[in-house]
TrEMBL record:
Lineage of the organism: Eukaryota, Fungi, Dikarya, Ascomycota, Pezizomycotina
SUPFAM superfamilies tied to this protein: alpha/beta-Hydrolases
Organism encoding this protein: Thelonectria olida
Record-given protein name: Carboxylic ester hydrolase
Gene Ontology molecular function, alphabetical: hydrolase activity
Enzyme class, UniProt record, top EC level: hydrolase
Length: 499
């Protein structure tokens, strides 16, 4: 069943879809790209009537089966998603059905940025992985209704740019979408002054960058990622990426990055083996690690096993190579190896320890530092949670990177366990509290979601029992010149979403 209305500021009659107890407007174009690697401009000329019942196209990308990492059963078929490099700047907007065409009181707004190593779409609404239906429907049931917006943006080389273009096109696309929200969300009943910007993994990296850039959002949620995970890189790191891809493009014909057909670009991306991209250095991000927080509140989360993304790569390493990597820590290498069980006579222990180190250095340490900084230096309200619910289809895989998407958005609740559904329900309720401006739990404590459907407030002892906090204390004492070489030797070139 459809739902339509004339949007005042968009000057178009939007035809949306009624789904469960929500009204959804899908594939709304917020930006237009006139040519490859061009900066996007606002879409200002919508047709008199716009069909918003179908999801819009995503950015061209190397195909990736998101079911693999998430362990979604193979017999659950995900829909094919169209791709278009010039029409991928679109968004989906979901509102509670009971608030459709009601503009007072205005509702707080959740804006979601998906992850995918800045290379692929890992979790679109179309796939069901990051479908906003359930969190919006639950918000209305709880009497705390919210509006949700999920953004599509340029990825991989299309969002990276060439040597002559502006850099960080993907980041700028997202900023354009945030400005669109400021200009038009009130026409859907949303409150532009109460925006929460959230993302997971690479999406959280982008959210952190928007926080530093002082994007128009009052609150931020960073799940399993930050700029510490993928810091802005200089031109000296960007140029080799482009050169590598250019070589593969030229192998496929008389093309350049600027004029190669999309099919050639995607084939070159696949041949290049480039698994992840990065934000490039710019003036606004120059002091990102020293920037005083500009948000009112933060919610920060991690899962127990973030480093699963490097598992295949680490397990392919010889124990001697892992020991060599840890030796790059210099005077602190002996203690670092002791903490992480790096022993030449115990190859399995070496590999597990290497994964634990990656987890702690790139995920746990940054989030703990951000909590400490926010609470002690700027008196920012920071809410910290641990997500420890095991994968619902393969519990032995643990609470791994991205499993929180399955839980939080509930897109697969019909085929997961009761305990996983309970954890997802708890997550949604607490997120809704945060989006509403309420206190989801005391900001001076930790909260754990899972395992087995449990929701538990933790003191310091409880947090220490779930995370390697003693190791984090040691990592805090290490200089980046000591710890970064270890990470680079272990992790560079070994990340994959197919783990």
């Amino acid at each position: 069943m459809s739902a339509s209305f004339e949007h005042r500021t968009l000057k178009s009659t939007l035809i949306g879809a009624r789904v469960d107890t929500t009204v959804q407007f899908r594939g709304i174009p917020y930006g237009k790209v006139t040519k490859r690697f061009a900066e996007a401009d606002f879409v200002t000329d919508l047709p008199a009537k716009l069909d918003c019942t179908r999801y819009g196209p995503r950015c061209p990308q190397v195909p990736i089966d998101v079911r693999h990492l998430l362990r979604i059963p193979r017999d659950h078929i995900l829909p094919a998603e169209p791709e278009d490099e010039f029409k991928c700047l679109n968004l989906d907007l979901v509102i509670p059905e009971e608030h459709f065409l009601k503009f007072e009181p205005r509702l707080p707004v959740l804006v979601w940025i998906h992850g995918g190593s800045q290379a692929v779409t890992f979790g679109s609404a179309a796939s069901g992985v990051c479908d906003m239906t359930k969190i919006v429907a639950d918000s209305a049931k709880l009497g705390k209704p919210v509006v949700a917006v999920s953004i599509q943006y340029r990825l991989n080389i299309f969002g990276f740019g060439d040597e002559t273009s502006a850099s960080n096109l993907a980041l700028n696309d997202q900023r354009l979408a945030l400005e669109w929200v400021q200009a038009h969300v009130s026409g859907f009943g949303g409150d532009a002054s109460r925006v929460t910007l959230a993302g997971e993994s690479a999406g959280a990296v982008y959210c952190h960058a928007h926080l530093v850039r002082k994007a128009p959002a009052a609150q931020f949620i960073l799940s399993s990622g930050s700029l510490h995970l993928s810091p802005p890189q200089p031109p000296s790191k960007a140029s080799p990426m482009r050169e590598r891809l250019t070589g593969h493009v030229q192998d496929l014909g008389p093309f350049s990055l600027q004029n190669a057909p999309v099919s050639v670009m995607v084939e070159a991306l696949q041949r290049s083996g480039i698994q992840s991209w990065f934000i490039q250095e710019e003036q606004q991000l120059q002091d990102w690690h020293r920037t005083v927080w500009g948000a009112q509140r933060l919610l920060l989360s991690d899962v127990q096993n973030e480093s699963v993304l490097w598992r295949s790569g680490i397990w392919s390493m010889a124990a001697s190579d892992i020991i060599h990597a840890f030796g790059l820590a210099g005077m602190k290498s002996t203690e670092l190896m002791r903490l992480y069980g790096i022993d030449v006579e115990r190859p399995s222990s070496c590999k597990i320890g290497a994964l634990d180190f990656i987890n702690d250095y790139k995920f746990l340490l940054p989030v703990e530092n951000m909590v400490e900084c926010g609470r002690s230096q700027t008196k920012l309200s920071v809410y910290r949670c641990l997500i420890d619910e095991n994968n619902p289809w393969q519990p032995s895989n643990g609470a791994h990177h991205a499993v929180d998407l399955v839980l939080l958005f509930g897109g697969f609740d019909h085929i997961i366990s009761a305990s996983a559904k309970r954890t997802g329900q708890n997550l949604r309720e607490k997120w809704i509290d945060f989006i509403q401006g309420d206190e989801p739990w005391p900001s001076d404590s930790y909260v754990a979601f899972g395992p087995h459907g449990m929701l538990q407030q933790l003191d310091e002892i409880g947090a220490n029992s779930r995370r390697r906090m003693a190791n984090v204390k040691f990592l805090k004492k290490m200089d980046i010149s000591e710890v970064a070489p270890v990470f680079n030797a272990l992790a560079v070139g070994r990340i994959s979403l197919l783990n």
